[in-house]
Predict the 3D structure of the following.
Amino acid sequence: MHAKPLNGNEQWVRDYNWLKQLAAMNINHPEMTTKLTPVLAAILLAGCGKPVPETPMHLAPEPVEPAVKEARPELPVDKPTAKLKTPEVSLWEAARTGNIEAVKLHLAGGFDANTKDEGGWAPLHGASGSGQKEIVELLLVNGANVNATALSGKTALDYALKAGHTETADLLRQHGGKKRAELKTEVK
């Protein structure tokens, strides 16, 4: 069975709706809104290209299944019109204060666990310095760099040790965490 190819208007509407949905998911993230606004404006101003004439069904190419399916966040099955809830706090604040539900929402929404704030802090730094062991583990499982350095050059392990959070420090060590001094020694 052949799928009917989209004409130019149908393609534009589909792309526009997808972009609106993407923007809505990240609306409370100032850093994402700042990045998406010019992109969305450019796409909407330029359009999505010239309308494609309808292709007769007997000339349409056979549909091809992609080798790797693109992962997009799924909406909850029981509520087909539900949107992903956007946390009220930033990922860094949620990690530092122990708001694990907000951290999970940010990560599920595609937020990079290694993104640094203006001070060069990754979410792992704040979670480690405040002893949020469960969040530290969640960030590590989701790809956080255990030895990422802040602008000061300190690592998550430095912050955990300075604040006396030995269980968090032990967890970081189990994942290969090192102090700033140890990283400097390796470079030499």
